[in-house]
Write a structure and sequence with these properties.
The protein is mainly α. The chain folds into 2 domains: about 80 residues, no CATH class; about 220 residues, MetI-like fold, CATH 1.10.3720.10. The chain has 14 helices and no strands. The model has no long low-confidence stretch (mean pLDDT about 75).
Length: about 300
């Protein structure tokens, strides 16, 4: 077996173990939440027949072991169970309807962050200590400090309400340009962080022996940067960008709410408001699995960029 294949299999086994652990944690946390979901969903004026029907839907009429078995069966079937609020709809069908919107937003935000961060980090690393370096680092620090819940409404007020250049919450998500403002809102913090990381990583690599050797061979500064410095400096940047992609799948709740975008965050908030625990645990499980899968892909990409990891 090759070193690359063995590395991939080890990472895949670790990902499957993490998914099983997350499934157990989701089921356990559902029972740790105080209060009766039946009372929250139906109220005190509901008839006993309606309460019994909802208890059967939530599997609360079973023992704890029976509920665990029902949850495992729902996960194994791929449906994640039937929603008790959106009747006649499986949890997976509700998630599948909105998941592409969240994935689209997360990927667009990470791509935009990389497009902004890499040039800024490279420019700052070429002139460390200069006014240009100070400007880039000061701007990135401001980007890290600005909260999403403030930046989103500010962008809406300026580009949607005042100028009317870009679509806003009143427009359907399929309208051209509807992804620009929410993606930029999410990308700002990530771009600032990646720009600082790119600069620091390039400055560290610049002192390595292989960089001095490349310069001694007569390679130009651009060739040294493109062939030797940048590929090695991008390893931690790729790692953080991939991890942040997984985080954005879970952390886009505020942005989706601000821009009225249908997504996992919106579905999760609606399910929490009516205590539809099957949808809640389904969304949390899908988010966790997405995070694990993204981290698995990052590990494989990291090994592809640095063959020394596969050998170790």
């Amino acid at each position: 077996m090759s070193a690359g294949l063995a590395f991939a299999l080890r990472r895949l086994l670790g990902a499957l173990t993490a998914v099983i652990g997350v499934s157990l944690a989701v089921f356990a946390l559902r029972h740790a939440v105080p209060g009766d979901p039946v009372d929250a969903m139906l109220g005190e004026q509901a008839t006993e027949a309606d309460r019994d029907d909802l208890r059967r839907c939530l599997d609360l009429d079973k023992s704890l072991l029976g509920q665990a078995g029902a949850f495992a069966a729902d996960v194994g079937s791929g449906t994640l169970g039937m929603s008790c609020h959106y009747r006649r709809s499986t949890v997976m069908s509700l998630i599948a309807e909105v998941y592409p919107r969240t994935a689209e937003l997360a990927v667009a935000a990470v791509a935009l962050a990389l497009v902004i961060a890499l040039p800024l980090g490279i420019i700052a690393s070429l002139r460390p200590g200069s006014w240009l370096d100070g400007l880039v680092m000061g701007t990135s620090l401001a980007g890290i400090a600005v909260p999403t819940m403030w930046l989103g409404p500010l962008l809406l007020a300026f580009f949607y309400v005042r100028l009317g250049w870009l679509p806003g919450p009143a427009d359907p998500p399929s309208v051209a340009g509807a992804l620009v403002l929410p993606a930029f809102t999410l990308a700002t913090h990530l771009a600032a962080m990646l720009a600082r990381m790119t600069r620091a990583s390039l400055l560290d690599v610049a002192n390595e022996d292989f960089i001095r050797t490349a310069r001694a061979k007569g390679l130009s500064a651009v060739q040294v940067l493109r062939r030797h410095a940048l590929p090695n400096a991008l390893l931690p940047v790729v790692t953080v960008a991939g991890i942040q992609l997984g985080s954005l799948l879970a952390g886009a709740i505020v942005t989706e709410k601000i821009f009225a975008r249908p997504g996992l965050g919106t579905l999760l908030l609606e399910a929490l408001s009516v205590r539809d625990w099957k949808v809640v645990q389904g969304v949390v499980l899908v988010i966790a699995v997405s995070y694990v899968v993204v981290n698995l892909l990052v590990d494989l990409a990291y090994a592809a960029l640095d063959p020394r990891i596969r050998v170790r």
